[in-house]
Structure formats: C-alpha cells, structure tokens
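Sample pair:
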Amino acid sequence: MNFDKKIEFSPAFDKRHSDPSKNYGIHGADMRWYLMGPEGAVQFVVYTSWHLPHVQAEMDLKPLSEGCTRYMHHKPLPADIGYHSKVPQYEGQESIDDDCEFTGGKCYYDGSGLNAKKGFELLVEKGSDAVWEWMEECYSDWLTPAEKGRG
C-alpha cells in the first residue's frame, strides 16, 4: 500500500502567568509522525523536552537530585501511538471530530501512551525506517478491514 508520510514539530511554549486562571505552564517541542492512507492515519508522538532557551536556562539552574545528570531532567517522552479512522473501530466508539484533516470528515480516534514506548525504542535503536515499518503494521492491524484482528 502507498502511504503519505509526514513529520511535524510543534514549538515549545512558555504560557506561565501570575493569574492561575490564565497559567498554561511550559511545554517542550513535540515531534509528530503521521502515516496516512485511504482508511485514515496512524500518528506517533514524542514530547522532546526541548524547551525555549530561557526556560531551559531556568531549568538548568535547579538543583539536581542524587545520581542525576542535567540530561535526565530533559529526556524525551514517548507520548502516543494512535489512529484517526473514518469509521468506528469498536462498538460504541464516538466521533471526536466532524472535519478531521486525516479522514476528510468524521474521525474516530484512539491511542495509547504506553504503547508509544515501542516506537521510541525503535527510533533510538534502529532509526526512522523502523518506525515507519512499525506504523505500517499498526495501520494494517487497526485500519485495514481485511487485516484486523491478525495480532
């Protein structure tokens, strides 16, 4: 099957505010991988923990706990592996969107933070080609009707 592939980075932010009702905190840049096909898309998300320079400088001044290095305070976090489907994938699944960029209409989404760890390990140990292969397996398992349930 032919897939479109896209990797996007969303920028880090500092939306701290003295008014708690307007304080949205800080967050590092996110890395999002999309594998898109005729049935929808699979996404893989990593929170990089790459912060804005002034936020990073602030974090670098914080005391370290015993046995911890600066890098350990800022390590990436595999956040999500999931799908955007044109049709429900299980009984009772509700649409999360009526205008999804990946389905062209209704979107039925589900994902897992725990299962994202595998994608991150593949990225670090084997590189991007291994991640794309894994995402194709996920697409086949989750979104290809003839393949569903194969394991």
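Residues 4-143 form one domain.
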